[in-house]
Amino acid sequence: MSMEPDAQGIPEPEGAANLIETEYEIGQDNIESSLGPFGFDVHNPVFLVSGLSIVGFVILTLALQDQAGAVFNGLRGWLTASLDWFFLGAANIFVLFCFFLILSPFGKVRIGGRDATPDYSYAGWFAMLFAAGMGIGLMFFGVSEPISHFNSSLGGTTFEGGVRTDWAPLGAAANDPKAAAELGMAATIFHWGLHPWAIYAVVALALALFSYNKGLPLTMRSVFYPIFGEKIWGWPGHVIDILAVFATLFGLATSLGFGAEQANAGLELLFGIPNNDVSKVVLILAITGVALISVYRGLDGGVKILSEINMGLAAALLLFVIVVGPTLAIVTGFLDNLIAYVTLLPALSNPIGRADTNFSQGWTSFYWAWWISWSPFVGMFIARVSRGRSVREFVVCVLLIPSLVCVFWMTAFGGTAITQIVQDGVTSVADAPLELKLFKMLAEMPFAGLTSLLGIVLVIVFFVTSSDSGSLVIDTITAGGKVDAPMPQRVFWCTFEGLVAIALLLGGGLGALQAMAVSTGFPFAVVLLLACYATYKGLADEPR
Amino acid sequence: MFQRAVVPIDLKHAENLKKARAAAIDLAAHYGAEVRYVGVTSALPGALAHTPDEFEAKLKQLAEDDAAGKGVAVSAQVIVSHDPTADLEKSLLDAIRAADADLVVMGTHVPNLGDGFWSSNGALIARHAPVSVFLIRAV
Fold first, then answer.
1. With an 8 Å Cβ cutoff, are B61 and A298 in contact?
2. In Å, how far is A369's CA from the nearest CA of chain B?
3. What is the mean pLDDT of residues A437-455?
């Protein structure tokens, strides 16, 4: 009887694929034991370093709430201002790499081996990748971002000492509502279209390839095998995995912060629940509780079901806005906005010599850093559920289709709000703070109470689907790529995601959340650029 | 009395399941029953195997080694789950029904404080399986 995992004779995945031969055994660096009655199985030192730092971070931020805010805001400003060229340039490379994958012969490679068949139907797969990938942001920014860009563009450019002080994208569109609307929509779609999804696709494909086809554990470090070789099992690998954990936690916490902010604002509007820290903390705790149930029920019994409910509700709200709102404007706007997006894409994505520094640093740079900090989480989640798809099918489905859905979503929500302002002279949407704009837009339509409630429910369900899938991902990374680690670990991470969001919200508000997302996004962007090269190398010796 | 026994096996902890495995084979020899070892894994590379096929080969080997010289017919079945941690009991119950088993022999740990929050796998199987379940403590 041989219970020792044997290194030789690794069977092939289904059909031809090219396994990497390594002496490393998954779980060899793990500590498996139990703490009281609760068993655990974690990677040393990835779990210890990331777990202890996060606990320390939460305690410190809560203890120094007053000082923390200033530090975080300074950090965010400095990073997005001095590294904007890097974030913009890197994101462009990811988009180009994805198009290369679609068009090149690599597109034929199948994830999981040549004869692998998909684990999930298109509907279930798409629901999960969309709910994990965009989530709360679509609710928070669907109305608020197009309106912000529309307003700042309409205001034209302002200068102070030769430096642009307005927040308008590109050259603005002073006193020209039509051009301002076009610019606002194009700029918003730019932030929600090809670039974020290319970032996700790069990470997801790299992880899926090295895990399902090459037989390496499902963690970030495996992607770097073609670059670092056996060294990835040592400190270079530990650092990559720890960075991935940080990026995921802070990226998620940022979204949870946005979600809490918006849900609270909506609840105040509908039911008069006070909008303060106590409500937000209670909200985050309650939602984390639901997420705990979801992680306990697992990928199929919890996350997938919630994602599908989520998609159903989002589709219902979208349909309502289209039918009750300015239907014709939305349908024609879809094509107009798509054209505006494609036309303005080169200018908007240009990384150097930008005059619109407030826009390109404050919005674009922040977004790219935020998406990048989300990418290990969304990427790993997409990778896990994407077995059996070909590379071409995978990239088309992760890059192009979600981008188009985002164009449509933004057109419906942003377009409706802009129509309200331009045609009906409504001012409530434009005057409202960011987190209330969605509800003010819905208030101009029939059944406002019902749709606002649906909006709040959606924010909360999106919140839960991000939190539960995030916990699964962090648990897998900190367990050295094991997907069957004991349940208490998931519970630990799910709980701490909520706590990080609370700590950051109390110690500096959304600014703090954004600062941490951007700070972890930067080192991870470097990791991702290397990942493109590694993926290229990995695909090159895969049978097609 | 029994024709088909299912023995859920956590390959990772096969050593702890020694008693359960021995009891299953002895019972099967006594009643002339067949024994099926059932394991649950994910399609992702894990600590024990890179693929479900490799996992199944190992499980089968374990079953054959255990039954060697006992005159008991053994087989192995691997259930591929998207999320083995969460779906374990459901997968096992499905396998028990599908195998048309009339006996389950299962290793389990000594109850502790944690079982107040999380029922052990053995306890859940005993509660929900449609057939007799023989739980055997690891120690």
1. no
2. 29
3. 89
